[in-house]
Design brief:
Length: about 350
Amino acid sequence: MYPYPIVVKAVWFDENRGEICWINTNKLPHEEEITCSSDPTRVAIAIKDMEIRGAPAIGVAAALTIGAYALKIAGRDLEEFTSLINSAIHTLWKTRPTAYNLFYALTRIQRSLREASSKTSDTYTVARKIVETALEIYREDVEANLKIGEYGAELVPDNATILTHCNAGALATSAYGTALGVIRVAWYKGKKIRVIATETRPLLQGARLTVYELVKENIPVTLVTDNAVGLLMRKKKIDLVVVGADRITRDGYVVNKIGTYMIALAASRHKIPFYVAAPTSTIDIEHTIDQVVIEERDPREVKYIMSKLITVEQVNTYNYAFDITDPDLVTTIITELGLIKPPYSETIPEIMSKKTL
């Protein structure tokens, strides 16, 4: 069905079980634990605790969960069915405040619920329509990642060394990935590339997840500490940077994993292209950067590594999950609709006008 193999999957819908399934990314790379559920509360916990993580995967997981739950409660009268579905949407809506794909996907599910229930009171029919919409969101994400990969691969020279931060791969999406989608397609096309992956404190998504994905596909990868990036750029060991995004504003501010901003600053200083790969479902055209909530997470994530206390227990911490990269530091945004170049305040609204919700 797709031109390249799907070696790694983060979330999917098991039609036989009528459940969403996911690989617990907290257990990787040492254990490949798969969990399935149709319970919105269970999936909400999985998203909050980062068993499921990465903006596109969160959005797809939320949509598939509502679909699975709708099948589970189908047969109740329409009023009760609708109330339960809206309550489930509310539960998932509150899980992560920054990843825009979550709100994009749930908004589409809400619209599907309204449209279907306005035409019939048969909740089995309404449930099937919700599942159809959720699977459409899933397929669109896979296809978007492929297109992002194709557009992005054209920006990757042969024999290039690519730096990526955090995990914007298959484990953060439905398949292939955004930043790693670019890397995968370049590799599949025969380009002799190498990847440098940052470890990505505090939860080590680069060390645990990006390395895991690339090693599975025999793509050459070198792991570095986050604070090695500046020196590597000075030593001319990096040709380009490709990262993902959790939200992009209409004027080009990029909200991504904490540490992205510092990498962008170093890349600018050393005149290294800094590319952001993201589907248009990540682009928020309604809010300014000042309105975006930057998630703060549990201090234990900073004070512990793999359940091991590494500091003094009572020390205070800042644990922001994301930072903000300014538009002037971003060379190009790679989307499934094409490449977006500065000035972003003009080009982002232009490309988004081609997209319908």
